[in-house]
Specification:
Largest sheet: 7 strands, mixed
Distance between the termini: 38 Å
Order of helices and strands: EEEEEEEEEEE
Strand content: over 45%
Length: about 120
């Protein structure tokens, strides 16, 4: 399914915005769904958002709905996560992954290395 490389993480104040990018080394989006997950310190990895590469259908975790937007640029083989109105509880390592249209990380085969997002209060 190709290599995935995330970028765009960083330190931001509460209420601020960041846009994460995930570039794929091969043309995966038309065949797979792309998801974003995150792991906060001391917590399990959790689902954030997913988008179907074929239909554009999206799904979000309740904790980010209305604040985060997932999108795909097929021409650039890149999936984005626009994060607005960030909160300290959004602090985590964010991972992108390719796989099935699902909220479960067990349905995703390829993973990026992760990018750190830190939100200060």
């Amino acid at each position: 399914q190709g290599q995935l490389v995330e970028s765009g993480g960083g330190l931001v104040q509460a209420g601020g915005s960041l846009r994460l990018s995930c570039a794929a080394s091969s043309r995966t989006f038309n065949s797979y769904a792309m998801g974003w997950f995150r792991r906060a310190p001391g917590k399990e990895r959790e689902f954030v958002a997913v988008i179907s590469g074929r239909t554009g259908l999206t799904s979000y975790a309740d904790s980010v709905k209305g604040r985060f937007t997932i999108s795909i640029d097929n021409a650039k083989n890149t999936v984005y996560l626009q994060m607005n109105n960030l909160k300290p509880e959004d602090t985590a390592i964010y991972y992108c992954a390719s796989g099935l249209l699902s909220r479960s990380d067990s349905n995703f085969r390829s993973w990026g290395q992760g990018t750190q997002v830190t939100v200060s209060s």
